[in-house]
Amino acid sequence: MPSPLQPFLEPSRPQPASETLTWLFTPAGQLLLASPSAQQLSLLSDPYAIIVPNWLQQVVEKALATDRPSLEQAPQVENLRVALVTEVVHIPLTLELQWLADTDSGSTLLLVTGSCQDLNQSLLSDWQQLQFLEAQRLSHKVSYWSWNREQANQFFAAPQVYVLLGQDSNQPLTLETFLQSCRGSLDDLQSAATSLGNQRSHWIGDFQVHTAQGDRWLECHCLLHHDSEGQLISIVGNLKDITEEHHILSLIQDSEARFQAVLENNPNGILILDEQGEVLYANSTAEQLFGKSHRELKGKYLGFPLSFNITIHLDLVQSDRSLRHVDVSIVPIPWKQSKAYLALLTDVTNLYQTQQRLQLLQEATEKSPVSIVITDREGSIEYVNQAFESITGYSAQEVIGQNPRILQSGLMPLGFYQNLWATITAGKIWRGEFHNRRQNGELFWERTSISPVKDLAGQIVHFVAVKEDVTEQKRNRELLDHQANYDGLTDLPNRTLALDRLRQAIALSERSNDAVVVMLLDLDRFKNVNDTLGHSYGDRLLQAVAQRLRYSLPREMTISRLGGDEFLIICPSVEEGIHIEKLSQKLLQVISQPIVIEAEELVITASIGVACYPNDGSTPEVLMRNADTAMYSAKRNGGNDFQLFMPTMNAAAHERIQLETHLRHALEQYQLKVFYQPIINLEHGRVVGLEALSRWHDPQLGNITPDRFIPISEETGLIVPLGYRVIEQACQDVAKWQQQYDQPLWVAVNLSPRQLRSSRFVQTTLKILNRYDFRPDALKLEVTEQMLMDDTASATQMLYTLHEQGIQLALDDFGTGYSALSYLRRYPFQSLKVDKSFLSDLPDSAESCALVKTIVAMAHGLGMQAIAEGVETEEHVQFLKEIGCEYAQGFFFSRPLPAAEIEPFLAQSIGSIS
């Protein structure tokens, strides 16, 4: 049975049409009617136009914009070509536009008629053929169905309905099963239908179905007929596949959602304003800037000028009374088929604050009391401040584009500038002092810090130099240094400077094997001069003696006033002893010459004591003490005499000789024993190493403490064989314990300066290690700061050779000497030993706590382990644990013990885990 919708839903092949294209418009441009051919042409040429295609709208608007002609005037003619949707066919049209009189309303109407200029109508035929093909293309997407109560509730569905629903056509649908496929029922349909009057209603809805070919979205449109009593008689409807349209709608909705998200999440404030400047839309950032919600802002007139290519600035007061600085730019945009404006609000508060800080920085730079120079990466000056001009005498115009070397005085070595440039081009900060020259030629000192400035890519683009004129400071410092190191009365070096020079002379002598002579000169009976002639006279006498000594002695000798009437003379690199006697006699003769002061002639004599390095002492203190002993011996002889120090002059010298003799016998007879003090890992409390210490019990003298026999062994050279014996015995014992307890014990041995200078030390030590199959990294040699002060090339090479062989190195007694940090960086130490003197006051002394903590932190910062000596209490242990010290040794754990007694200690500590 054919459907009543079949004539509309299944178009037949079109026949050539001859109907005229006709449109009728009101004076306002509103379409009143259009012929069927005109409607078809409108649809195919511009399917997106709702009523009037775009090309026709332009023609009508042009006609309406001109002065309205009289009704008798000839029609206006427009020739144009209209492209169909496919753009394959272009229809040549001739349009006639003529004003007509509407007798009913008394107004005029615009009649537009069109005709095709193709006489054969071949193009129009093609157009109609395309229209037919388009209908064919859409036919598989649209189908129809019907139901009639009067025909036994018959339900009819075109075959395409079954295809669209994914149903088997062999199982006919009923109205109920069809509506179930549409996700509804007949009651739902009737309740949702919209009345059209005349006992008719219609319903339209969409739904999703799942078919073997995939999911589809379908649209159902139906017309419901009722009788006079409201009973449903029949339904006719169509079913359309809207999957593509639904997908496009979803994309549009997603796009709108993304656009909305972009607007809402934009870091800038966004406002949409209508043509009157009232707010249509505000995103969340704009709400925050104005402190108002979207509802409060909507429809509000903000007073923005609707002008283009300008930026206005707003200062918005926030709820916390702070100001937000906002720049506003406005551009026109289309908005919901009308004209609107987009206002972009950029929060420039941070930029504004940054500009203020930059301005403040610029003012501070200009008014800074120190000079500031900025150069490019090649060193060309780009900026100098006022202080630079004031200090150097150069104006900014004179130095811009120049290199800072225009300030060079020529007094600094070339390597100084090479090191500077290498440092800053490596991206590091350089600090130092320049001896520069002003524009007027005057020399001055500058303390300078030069910092590289990098861009976001990490590349150096500028250098900034901050320079302070320290000329006056250096003068004051030199004056203070002079006052600290020179005697205020005679302008001779004082005791501090003299001791320093004596140390230098001794260090030089160790390398040259020359002697150093120390002469202590004391005026005879000077007290009588002060008592009889007064202190002023005595001061002038001391000045005269100092002047005579300067003129009588070579420049390489140091003449020092130690205090009172006591003078010290240091003679470096003395080769022959007879020279000492001649020099002493000469000095006595010079001093004894008459001196005239305030017209008063006076004869003064002196007593001189002489001590020689290394025979009479190896340290400045010992040499000066022995020289003092010899000087008093000369005084005991009546004065005006000199005495060379002799060992018999004091009991200490005698004891020294006795100890030296016994020490030699002790070495021959193996009386010196090796004791071991455990080194504890503070983390788990077990023994990890031992320090090997030499102990001596003499049959006649009894126990001799190390502080008595070690200095003698150092001075006499006996420390070398003694050191080898300690290393050998320690390696032998520890190797046995390593095997016995299966633990990687290590042993620490003190190294002496003489061993460090011995050319055979490394070779002999390696032989010992090989003899006992002892790992080099299990031997730790401890070096004191005093040993490093010599800084001999051979000693440095020796330490690095030991390190390369795998032997561990530790810096002992750190902090008790000069504590020069350069030692830590210059030498390959793995451990740093904290001297026991720093632990005695822990934890009660804040100073000691801070000092120990600093030493441990410094060791860790340089990649070294820290070992604390002299640990005697539980408080010491807890404090060291807290600051991260790895190892400790001291009486708290164990005194130094002989090998036989240390074994039980090892068994208790590590035997259980072996």
Describe this structure in words.
This protein is of the alpha+beta class and 914 residues long. An eight-stranded mixed barrel has the order 29-30-32-33-34-35-36-37, surrounded by five helices. Strand 4 and strand 5 form a beta hairpin. Mean pLDDT is 83; it is low at 1-18 and 119-124.
Beta-strand percent range: 25-35%
Helix content: 25-40%
Order of adjacent strands in the largest pleated sheet: 29-30-32-33-34-35-36-37
Number of strands: 38
Mean pLDDT: 83
- Our Rg estimate from Cα atoms comes to 55 Å
So what's the overall shape? elongated
Main β sheet profile: 8 strands, mixed, barrel
Taking the alpha carbons of the first and last residues, their distance comes to 104 Å
Annotation field: number of helices: 31
Can you tell me the residue ranges where pLDDT is under 50 for at least 5 consecutive residues? 1-18, 119-124
The assigned structural class equals: alpha+beta
State the assembly state of the protein chains: single chain
Which features would summarize this protein structure in a list?
914 residues, alpha+beta, 8-stranded mixed β-barrel, 6-stranded antiparallel beta sheet, 31 helices, 38 strands, disordered N terminus
